[in-house]
Description:
Elements: E1 6-10, H1 14-25, E2 29-33, H2 39-57, E3 68-72, E4 84-87, H3 93-106, E5 112-115, E6 135-140, E7 149-153, H4 160-172, E8 176-180, H5 189-205, H6 211-228, H7 231-238, H8 245-266, H9 273-289, H10 292-311
Helix pairs in contact: 1-2, 7-8
The protein binds nicotinamide-adenine-dinucleotide.
Amino acid sequence: MSEIKTVGVVGTGVIGASWTALFLAHGKHVLVADPAPDAANTLRAHLESFWPLVEQIGLSSGASLQNYRFVGASLGEHYGEVDYVQENAPERLDLKKKLIAEIDSKTRPEVVIASSSSGIPSSQFVTSCKHPERVLIGHPFHPPHIMPLVEVVGHPGSSENAIATAMQFYTSVDKRPIHIMKETPGHAANRFQAAVMNEAFSLVSHGVLTATDVDACITTSLGPRYALMGPFLSNVSGGGGGKDGFRHLLEHLGPAVQGWLKDMKDKQISYDAETYDKLSESVRKEQEIFDIKEVEKQRDELLVRLLKDKKTASAIV
Ligand SMILES: NC(=O)c1ccc[n+]([C@@H]2O[C@H](COP(=O)([O-])OP(=O)(O)OC[C@H]3O[C@@H](n4cnc5c(N)ncnc54)[C@H](O)[C@@H]3O)[C@@H](O)[C@H]2O)c1
């Protein structure tokens, strides 16, 4: 991979601004484009609010909040200067198709074009590209200046070289890329999130738990465990930790889990106004207890501490 010094960030809303902060923290120069009338000011405000946490996470050599330039509605005459593109425009196929075709026609053919898209597979928006092999998804977990995961997903025509470049690039800016080998709706992390949300909604809708207790159930059990050990290693551990621990746990608890899964399927909820009313009522009561702004602030501070501490634990990924 030739060195990536300058990153083009196209679209600087919630995700683009956060990517910009991350790239700056790792010593990159960033050229940013967005057609919104106040985009330059909004970006500046976002970057200034992100920077104290970004500094706490740690800056690479050459990192500076000054190393970005907002260049206007599009990268225009600057396309030739970028070594990597991170696209973060709204989640609309017509828009992504047109925009990715423009980026493809103006950047050097070896430059990887990564889209942050959460749901549109890149095979759907490379149809007008001359060099579709360098287009892929680089999907962050919000907010990318803090959360380590990036899901790299090619389309059937993405080159191995482009995938390898994206994986190396995200690793070099301290992310934890995973390669999703087949285009899959929702990629991976959001599918896990959807499964958990579905069960949370079901338990509240069926009067089993309040929203407050669902949240406590997760933050005091699976949440902290999964921050340190994923579901597979957790099963190895739950099965006694031996060589056959994983298999032992499946054989031991598998039949019971099948029964729970059947019950969960039978109690599948419908996503309609009545369900939303019921859920909203329970969440409103939870919001009377918690000050969300304070929770978010403390969450970010603790997350940064956790992520830093994890780096000192050699056995933990
Ligand atoms: N918000 C999330 O939690 C999240 C997480 C991961 C990925 N994503 C993905 O990131 C992308 C951006 O989402 P977001 O939440 O930042 O949206 P957003 O609405 O906050 O930002 C989109 C930005 O794109 C700009 N834009 C509009 N047309 C454009 C164009 N032609 N060229 C360049 N910029 C243009 C808008 O002015 C806006 O600033 C989406 O594909 C979304 O699926 C979002």
